[in-house]
Amino acid sequence: MGNPVVQFQILSKNPDQTAQFYSSLFGWEVDSNNPMGYRRIQTGSSEGIQGGIWPAPPQAPTFAQLFMAVEDVAAAVKKAEGLGAKTIIPPTTLPEGDRMAVMIDPQGMTFAVCRKM
Amino acid sequence: MFREKLEQEFAARRAKNPRHSLRAFAAFLGADHSSLAQILRGRRRAPAAQIRAWARKLGLTQEEAAVYIAAEHVPDEATAHRQHQLRHWTAEALGIVSEPAHWDILRLSRTVEFEPDSRWIAQKTGLTVDQVNVALSRLLRLRLLAIGDDGKWQDLAEQAITERQFRKLALARVRQMAKE
Q1: Among A62, B57, B160, B165, which is 20 to 30 Å from B97 by CA?
Q2: The domain spanning residue A77 has which CATH number?
Q3: What's the domain range around A49?
Q4: Beta bridge pairs of residue A54
Q5: What is the ipTM of this complex?
């Protein structure tokens, strides 16, 4: 199956304004009607990937993250750690069953590995 | 950095004349040769006033000199990394000290009625969903909460039975993770 990039996530200090900006700019639809109140972005196209917006911690700037699909999140985390990455959020199962972990690569870029339900 | 510029200039002069000494280069710049040696070894930084004067001797424009002076005020990579780490862990600790949301989430997760739903938690605590999610992310980062394969929230701070005990535990965790 490979390990495609399946999602982008914007971590924003002001998620509402970010949602407003990109909706106005690109016509993206943002829906937060789910258990985490996660702002899911539908870009309106079958091309490219879909995304989401999550509130950034106060110490971080607004930034974007990529989510890579993996078969086994825990195994991917272990492999990434072996290659020098650090785990920020350990493997976690979200309310709707998706599993994910957030890591930081040896160059300081954060990314996530996930397995969608 | 201006040190690299000085190194390049010195190397270029030595390439033309292998007998060109550091003392001669210092004399050309109008600099004290031991100070210049320390700057070239990276033991000290070139003061702004000297950068301006030396840049002129090297034929740089005022604008170019200003760039080198500004660059001297930018922290080096190691210092910037330390500052970033300090800012990160201080913010984590400050969040624990100043925002009761973390304890509220854990306290609620221990109740029978608990629903692992940020909107439900927000409603129960009077926080916004974003405030809940910022606190939730911090609890996960600090390994004070885990969400297992089955989606169940696992309280990893269960030994803390008061808010005060929780804060103490959480701050100890911040210190521990900052050291790692």
Answers
A1: A62
A2: 3.10.180.10
A3: 5-115
A4: A11
A5: 0.93
Give yes or no for A75 touching B (CB within 8 A): no
On whether any CB of chain A is under 8 Å from the CB of B122, the answer is yes
Of B90, B132, B147, the CB nearest to A93: B147
Domains parsed from chain B with CATH numbers: 2-74 (1.10.260), 78-179 (1.10.10)
B91 with A58: Cβ contact below 8 A: yes
Rounded to a whole number of angstroms, the distance from the CA of A90 to the nearest CA of chain B is 8
The burial of A91, by beta-carbon neighbours within 10 Å (0-12 exposed, 13-18 middle, 19 or more buried), is given as buried
Tens of pLDDT, residue by residue over A38-82, are 999 999 999 999 999 999 988 888 999 999 999 999 999 999 999
d(CA B177, CA B180): 5
CB A103 within 8 A of CB A74: no
Q: Nearest by CB to B133, from A54, A58, A92: name it.
A: A54
Terminal alpha carbon distance of chain A = 15
Point out the residue among A57, A92, A93 whose CB comes nearest to the CB of B138: A57
In chain A, how many domains are there?
Answer: 1
Q: Kindly provide the b/e burial profile for residues B6-23, where b requires at least 16 CB atoms within 10 angstroms of the residue's own CB.
A: beebbeeeeeeeeebeee
In tens, the pLDDT along B4-53 reads: 999 999 999 999 999 999 999 999 999 998 999 999 998 888 888 889 99
What are the CA-CA distances from residue B25 to residues A73, A111, B9, B32, B40 (Å)? Answer: 59, 49, 9, 10, 12
User: pLDDT averaged over chain B?
Assistant: 92
Contact A90 B129 (CB under 8 A): no
pTM assigned to the model: 0.84
